[in-house]
Design brief:
With 447 residues, this protein is α+β, with helices and mostly antiparallel strands. It has 10 helices and 21 strands. Helices cover 23% and strands 34% of the residues. Strands 9, 14, 15, 16, 17, 18, 19, 20 and 21 form a 9-stranded antiparallel sheet that branches.
């Protein structure tokens, strides 16, 4: 008796062939390697290729595992609508996918329409695992279309490889240029050598931001606008006007400008209830009141949503552990022939009481790695935009000082045209990401 080839076998082969064709016709080419033996919930793997700096196509070593399900009667398709359908995997498949060391993409071939759909399998907490958890497939979001060449865009967050030499891009950066600077730094002999005494003697509004350097007092502001400071603190007759432009040209003198600018920026942050931690050399958002355990800030997201917000301080409890998670950032200055720049580098800070940092280094590392391991280019760009937009109050420029003659102003982002691309993670730039939600933080210690 002849062997009978089942309809399901034919449909399965069609699905594999359709996906193979998709990979072979993708630009850049995607290597498809089917699993020929020991099929335990994986049908094969794909490896990306990319042009190197010499324009040659090469394998990148970036691999995803693929599970292909094919249907001709909708056996894998449930609750279908015009925009989506559900796929219900077997319990043992989900357990296997979750335990796999490489990311897994589920590919569904619908023989009725000859269409392919792909969706990365998200990790499911085994403690909450239930049978027949449906995987929702969006017909527009998850479709794999021949010739669209968007596989890397869809799944870039699953690959370590971030550089694509097949495209050219204008890159956003975390570098901001000072577009307005004071013409002079005023230098004086001081009548009081201890800065603490000056702070005790005069209120904030009675003194400018100042710096002691080489036993001299320096400030961006003409002290005539601060009468008590002029008369009681400095020897006004010793005044010297140091050109900021000339100071920036000299490597030894640049430090005066950057240190004084750092003090100005700290004052701006202080006014916005953002403190500076010396131990970790970073700014961090404070709770606005001791009666609150969290802080939410709204900002201009450059999107249609006018209520974009993020939690910048959150109180977390896990069994016997409790701590505050603060959104934070570091700054540094760059001075070159093109100008004076500030670099903003997003960070986190964890405190035990809303101010004093945790001291357990292992715990801090675990908390930080949990957050940063999930962040890609797009999330970092969101962080940088948030800091600038919040401090600039939604304006295109960040005004550090508006005092006439001593204006200090930061422009928006610096952009760079490059001969390569860094793919975003197929998410909207201003779409809130899950690790800012309190529910996502509950498993922080289980990762």
């Amino acid at each position: 008796m002849s062997k009978i080839i089942s309809e399901s076998h034919i449909t399965g082969d069609k699905g594999v062939a359709a996906f193979h064709s998709y990979c072979a016709n993708h630009s850049p080419f995607i290597l498809w390697r089917p699993e020929t033996v020991n099929d335990f919930g994986i049908d094969g793997e794909v490896e990306l290729t990319a042009k190197n700096s010499n324009g040659k196509l090469e394998a990148t070593g970036d691999i995803l595992k693929i599970q292909i399900k094919s249907t001709t009667k909708g056996s894998y398709i449930h609750k279908e609508s015009d925009t989506s359908f559900e796929f219900k995997p077997r319990e043992e498949d989900v357990e296997y996918w979750n335990k796999h060391k490489l990311d897994v993409v589920l590919v569904i071939f619908d023989d009725r329409t000859n269409k392919l759909y792909g969706k990365k399998i998200l990790k499911i907490d085994e403690g909450f695992f239930k049978k027949n958890i449906p995987i929702v497939i969006g017909k527009d979001e998850n479709i794999l279309t021949m010739g669209k060449n968007d596989f890397l865009e869809k799944y870039s967050e699953s690959f370590k490889q971030r550089v694509n030499h097949n495209i050219k891009e204008k890159l956003s950066s975390n570098i901001f240029k000072f577009t307005k600077l004071p013409k002079f730094i005023y230098q004086f002999e001081s009548k009081i050598s201890n800065p603490k005494e000056i702070f005790e003697k005069l209120e904030n509004t009675e003194r400018p931001v100042f710096l002691f350097h080489s036993k001299k007092l320096h400030t961006f502001f003409n002290p005539n606008g601060f009468p008590r400071f002029r008369d009681e603190i400095i020897d006004y007759s010793s005044k010297k006007e140091l050109s900021v432009r000339e100071l920036l040209k000299n490597k030894d003198d640049r430090r005066i400008v950057s240190e004084l600018m750092n003090l100005e920026f700290k004052q701006l942050c202080f006014n916005e209830k953002i403190a500076f931690n010396k131990q970790y050399d970073r700014y961090f958002f404070l709770v606005k009141s001791k009666t609150f355990n969290s802080r939410i800030e709204y900002y201009d997201s450059k999107s249609k949503r006018k209520d974009t917000h993020r939690t910048v301080v959150a109180f977390k409890e896990y069994k016997a552990r409790s701590f505050y998670r603060h959104f934070a950032f570091e700054t540094k200055y760059i001075i070159n022939d093109e100008g004076f720049f500030m670099v903003i580098n997003p960070q986190y800070l964890f405190t035990n009481d809303g101010f004093n940092p945790l001291q357990d280094k292992a715990e801090i590392t675990k908390l930080t790695n949990y957050l940063t391991s999930k962040e890609r280019n797009q999330q970092v760009l969101n962080h940088v935009h948030f800091v600038f937009s919040f401090l600039a109050r939604g304006n295109q420029k960040l005004i550090i000082s508006a005092i006439e003659g001593s204006e200090i102003e930061l422009s928006s982002y610096q952009f760079f045209n490059v001969d390569f691309g860094i793919p975003l993670d197929n998410k909207e730039v201003d779409k809130p990401v899950s690790h800012y939600d309190s529910s996502a933080q509950q498993n922080m210690f289980e990762s």
